[in-house]
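Researcher: Please translate sequence to structure tokens.
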Amino acid sequence: MNFSFYMPARVYFGENCIRENREALKGLGQKALVVTGRHAAKAVGALDDVTAALEANGQAYVLFDQVTPNPTMDLVYRGAEIARQEACDFVICIGGGSPMDSGKAIALLAGEDLPPERLFTGPYTGRVLPIAAVPTTAGTGSEVTKASIITNDAAKTKSSINYEGIFAAVSFCDGRYTQTLKHATTVDTVVDALSHAVEGFLNVHASPLTDLLAGESIRRICAALPAVAADTLTLKDRENLLYASTLAGMVIANTGTTAVHAMGYELTYFKETPHGRANGYLLPALFHFYEEKQEKKLNQCLSYLGMETTEEFQVQMEQLLGRPEYRLTAEEIRTYAEIAIQAGNIKNCSTAPDKEDLVRMYTRALG
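Model: Translation complete:
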């Protein structure tokens, strides 16, 4: 048995974890750039909790609340410029995937002057501002990953900064911050977390430890799916989902994602499909791909899901997400497959698909 597992983020989990552990912010710096969207972090109380902790610690802060869904390169370069102008020496990201991704990229760009053509490839020098993360959705897992996903118009997709330097130094996970999510957002983000756990399990880099974490994440998510579908989640349910999302984040921090993410980014870029929903449309097609190639591992995954067949899983996803609002043309499928096959995470599949496999998966899911 040989494997490596790396997880440098310190995680504080539970109700009021920011207030009770505010001293953990003291070692990060003297002045924070607080990166968030315009509304959600304020509405759920997360922003108030963060600023109260900073003020109690005697730390200054500047608010950058301009993050929009699917953040662009222009946005993160603008945020980094503000961080430099204001002499901020650490970053706090509050929100779902978009603020987390933005904050990590801003922390990287504020520390070193990277031209756009090197943003996703490096090399990086290691001059990254320390990062604290406060998730307000149970889905992204970004509070414990080394990835930042940014819209890449030049490549007509979303691209990943994949760099150990952008792991959060400290993360605060409080289920209360997810309580006011709209039902559709809850569904989309839960499916994203499930996708992370499943993709990390059906992965060439999977290890006994990541499999253990992925299995626990899948079981907890599946136990909550009836309440997710019915929109009857309790605070305890939401805490369990946030915990499951964090576990899944630890998994993909070590394995990476796979073809579902590579393919899903095209649905988000071209069709504006929310990220988790795009993954949910494609996951059953990935299962069908694995039926002949990785039957034993797929059956293990299905057992964690409490199911016996891929068809059962497909029905579950359709009940949760509904049928897609669009179908793809043959030309769109070819275009998306051409882009997706170039993504590095394709190689993370325990059996790597080729371009024609991607065409078949897109066709099965959305053709």
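Researcher: Any highlights?
Model: The first strand starts at residue 10 and ends at 13.
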